[in-house]
Write a structure and sequence with these properties.
Layout (H helix, E strand, L loop, with lengths): L1 H4 L5 E2 L2 E7 L8 E6 L4 E5 L30 H14 L18 H4 L2 H8 L7 E5 L11 E5 H11 L1 E4 L2 E4 H8 L3 H9 L4 H6 L11 E2 L5 E2 L4 H14 L14
Antiparallel strand pairs: 1-2, 2-3, 3-4, 5-6, 7-8, 9-10
Length: 252
């Protein structure tokens, strides 16, 4: 009963919980709610987080959680779920960069999508992303804003700092000085390279490939399936350890 009493006075969209009424025929708790349009409606307790209005003609038609059905989800609703996952679910790929560093979602947003949407507004365009203004801050009204993807990328490049040879500098500047691609260096670091390895390893120069041939001297066009298959097997053979027998389903 203690958990049920916590719903008294709570607001969900345009609904305010007034009091508990008799349980449903299946034994589920029900609540009488007052809508902002003046309508009173009895709603199951388990449905309250997803029911944001009385459903009358005075309100625009809503979907599921306000923005979702069993088939589709709005961009903003998907974003809301993603933000909570990256902050509170250790199993998600982005958790180490957010929840793992202590990032949290404001209480007024965490359990109330309607408030979240009201505060951030609709995504201005498909090119926009919702970014943290302060990288070490939390997801809260004062610390997020919509930004175009290209602007966000520039901001990310300028904001990323690394310490190399005793100096802390912008990674983008170091990459330019070393003649390395910023994206290449970031990719190296992401895959486990140290800062020293990522910055001191020269970029691999791409050379024109020679045509591939087989033992009989027949030359294959490098874009044919035969050439790709042969090339893959040659590379595999080059990685074999001496004396180790390897099964070759191709028969070569």
């Amino acid at each position: 009963m203690g958990r049920a009493l916590q719903l008294l006075g709570k607001t969900f969209g345009t609904l305010t919980v007034e009091r508990r009424v008799a349980n449903s025929a299946t034994g589920q708790t029900r609540w009488r709610c007052l809508c902002s349009c003046g309508t009173r409606k009895e709603i199951l307790g388990c449905d309250l987080p997803q029911t944001l209005s009385c459903g009358g003609s005075a309100h625009p038609r809503r979907r599921g959680h306000g923005e979702a059905t069993h088939r589709t989800r709005s961009v903003e609703y998907t974003l809301w779920l993603s933000i909570k996952a990256r902050c509170y679910n250790p199993k998600t790929e982005m958790y180490p960069d957010y929840g793992g560093r202590g990032a949290q979602v404001a209480d007024l947003w965490r359990n109330d999508f309607a408030t979240f949407l009201h505060d951030i507004g609709r995504r201005p365009s498909p090119q926009h992303r919702l970014l943290l203004v302060g990288r070490d801050g939390h997801y809260e009204p004062s610390n997020v804003r919509w930004m175009r993807a290209d602007e966000a990328y520039k901001r990310y490049r300028n904001a990323r700092l690394v310490t190399w040879k005793g100096q802390t500098r912008r990674l983008s500047e170091l990459c330019a000085e070393r003649g390395l691609s910023f994206d290449t260096v970031v990719s190296r670091i992401t895959t486990g390279w140290t800062i020293e390895e990522a910055l001191e390893t020269p970029a691999r120069k791409l050379t024109k490939k020679e045509p591939l041939g087989d033992a009989s001297g027949v030359i294959f066009d490098e874009d044919t399936p035969a050439a790709r298959d042969l090339g893959a097997r040659l590379m595999s053979a080059g990685r074999r350890k001496p004396g180790r027998k390897v099964n070759d389903p191709g028969g070569t």
